[in-house]
Design goal:
- This protein is 30% helix and 27% strand.
- It contains 14 helices and 24 strands.
- A four-stranded mixed beta sheet has the order 22-23-1-24. Strands 2-15-17-16 form a four-stranded mixed beta sheet. Strands 4-5-3-14 form a four-stranded mixed beta sheet, covered by helices on one side.
- Strand 12 and strand 13 form a beta hairpin.
- The longest helix is centred in the middle third of the chain and has 14 residues.
- It starts with a strand and ends with a strand.
- It binds ligand EPZ.
- The site of ligand EPZ has 23 residues, from helix 1, helix 5, helix 6 and helix 12.
Length: 419
């Protein structure tokens, strides 16, 4: 069991390179099932969720090999199955993303319902109704999804909510459908644009990603390719918030401000000086953050729900109050009790959380409750006097290659302790 030991109170000074995006590489790994060839993914982050996806591909008879620190080569030509075991489905909630790709490749699929997670129930009704629109027969009795799609047929599919996962699943299934599929009310996240980039590099005809209408011309044979995964905008947001929390001057190589403009807008309001160019994003913060206008999470291009806990941690010592409204998940304030152990003053009522800025925070033993809540504890620890012990760090390892390494590169006193 490992812990992170962070000693707060010193300003940050340094630079680090932003890892590849977890929420882009996961659907891209599922999309490799659509290609008859070898795929080389560069800038691929070494994460627990990537390991879980590799295990799913290997369980289907495919091969995957690390060719260097961040290059993963995948070959799905040897695919021989269409079922994903319950154990593997439980390892990672976003494993539902494999459904559309397996259906498109094999004409059938058998997956157990992906578990809920720390954020609350994670239904996939939008995924299933969209796949049924494309002609899939799905029997979801007894916790296992038995899916058959002898012929997927392209058509217009309207999402009642711009679900990221459902958009991605339907893009992948549509590659295996005859004719053109248009996904209306599609999610617009940058990771959807990256998935379109990958599919296009494999010879697919996909357009519209980043807008609310994505079109896919199905029935094309896709070949392998070499593709570089986009930088992780939430990891970048994490380190910008670390600078806002502790003060200091940092540079994030590869970070792209256009992917996180709602986060940088709030940080500028809090008093940070942020500058960006094609190399990355620079951030300089001094003293306690100023109070900011209410932060409401929403689908992209709104404020990202994944940055809510992280920004909250950065504003614990703000001069005044900060109001948050979490509109995407029903259980995404589990980090609040742990932050309170460090002296934070936060009141939660339903979807709203009100942070009243305090003069001081103090180090304490705290426990990760989920991926981004765990990262928030690290951000808060940087501003706390004394040492903070963060345990259950497995949650953080799902989405950050090595948060202690990156924080040290930015000048923080952070180390991992294997118990
Ligand atoms: C993706 O999850 C991300 N995960 C999440 O990041 C992110 O928080 C989320 O998008 C929103 O941006 C990956 O990309 C792997 P949704 P996803 O479908 O696809 C409800 C992280 O920390 N919903 O847009 O599951 C759902 O319950 C993770 O990196 C349905 O009701 O998000 C949620 O309340 C956490 N039915 C809301 O929509 C469905 O069929 C948003 O879900 C699908 C979703």
């Amino acid at each position: 069991m490992s812990q992170l030991i962070i000693r707060g109170g010193s300003r940050l000074e340094g630079e680090t390179e932003i890892q590849g995006a977890k929420n882009s590489v996961l659907p891209i790994l599922a999309a490799t099932l659509l290609t008859a060839g070898q795929v080389e993914l560069r800038g691929c982050p070494r994460l627990r969720d990537v390991d879980a996806s590799v295990r799913i591909l290997e369980g289907l008879g495919c091969t995957a090999r690390w060719e260097g620190p961040d290059t993963l080569t995948v070959d799905t030509r040897s695919l021989e199955g269409c079922a994903v075991s319950e154990a593997l489905m439980r390892e990672m909630r976003s494993s539902a993303i494999f459904l559309g790709a397996i259906l498109a490749r094999c004409g059938q699929a058998e997956l157990s319902y992906p578990g809920g997670c720390e954020l609350g129930p994670r239904p996939i009704d939008l995924h299933l109704s969209g796949l049924r629109d494309l002609g899939a027969e799905i029997d979801d009795a007894g916790g296992v999804l038995h899916c058959k799609a002898l012929r997927l047929r392209g058509r217009e599919v309207v999402l009642s909510f711009p679900s990221v996962g459902a958009t991605e699943n339907l893009m992948l299934a549509a590659c295996g459908a005859s004719g053109v599929t248009t996904i209306a009310n599609a999610a617009r996240e940058p990771e959807i644009v990256d998935l379109q980039g990958f599919l296009t590099a494999c010879g697919a005809r996909v357009s519209g990603a980043g807008t609310s209408t994505v079109s896919v011309e199905g029935g094309r044979t896709l070949h392998g390719c070499t593709y570089t995964v986009m930088p992780d905008r939430i990891a970048a947001a994490t380190y910008l918030c670390a600078a806002a929390s502790a003060g200091g001057e940092i540079f994030l190589r590869r970070a792209r401000e256009e992917h996180l403009s709602t986060v940088t807008a709030v940080l500028r309001e809090a008093g940070c000086a942020i500058r960006s160019d094609e190399e990355g994003v620079a951030c300089a913060c001094r003293g306690r953050p100023a109070a900011v206008r209410p932060v409401r999470t929403a689908p992209y291009p709104g404020f990202p729900t994944d940055a809510q806990a992280i920004l909250m941690a950065a504003l614990l010592r703000c001069r005044g109050a900060a109001v948050f409204e979490e509109n995407m998940f029903e259980n995404r304030y589990r980090h609040v009790d742990e932050l309170a152990r460090m002296g934070a003053n936060i009141r939660v009522s339903g979807r709203a959380a009100v942070v009243t800025g305090v003069e001081r925070l103090h180090g304490a033993p705290v426990r990760c409750t989920d991926l981004r809540g765990g990262a928030a504890l690290c951000v808060a620890a940087l501003a706390a006097e004394g040492e903070t012990e963060v345990s259950e760090t497995g949650h953080i390892d799902r989405g950050y290659e090595d948060i202690a390494r990156d924080l040290r590169a930015l000048g923080a006193e952070a180390r991992r302790l294997e118990r």
